[in-house]
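REQUEST ID: PR-0412
SUBMITTED BY: lab tech R.K.
PRIORITY: routine
TASK: structure prediction, single protein chain
INPUT:
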Amino acid sequence: MTGETGAAAHYRALEALYAAAPINDLFKSKLEITGEGQARISFMVEPGHYHAAGAAHGTTYFKMLDDAAFYAANSLVNDFFLLTTAFNLWLTRPLKAGPVVAEGRWVNGRRRVLVAEARLVDADGEEVARGTGTFMRSRISLAKLPGYARPESLKS
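STATUS: complete
OUTPUT:
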């Protein structure tokens, strides 16, 4: 984070927080906050993510859509961790092994409840799923979470 200030420092700290989450040992992935209200997660679907019929289990869809929408929303909130309060999924195609991108974007709300959406795009550029979530501010300080680190001068 050397040299980054304000929003950019917050984005890098959210990326570090994501990378530190133990769940990502099961779902190898990389988060990029690409701008205010925008997040992108790159990951590989592997056969270990499959259900019995040979395509990605719904947990893979949900995890990546929720994370992309969540971090798009939390990019707008620099003091508290958000919590997912509801999430709707639309699964349109089976997801097979290969690279996938989850693209999240903030839609509405900035105070107590934020709405964001995400979509999964496969290696062929096809949308395979979409989701919309609502996220509420918690009382959990970002600054106190392991993995979230910003220079002291930038914390608010």
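NOTES: The chain is about 20% helix and 40% strand.
REVIEWED BY: pending
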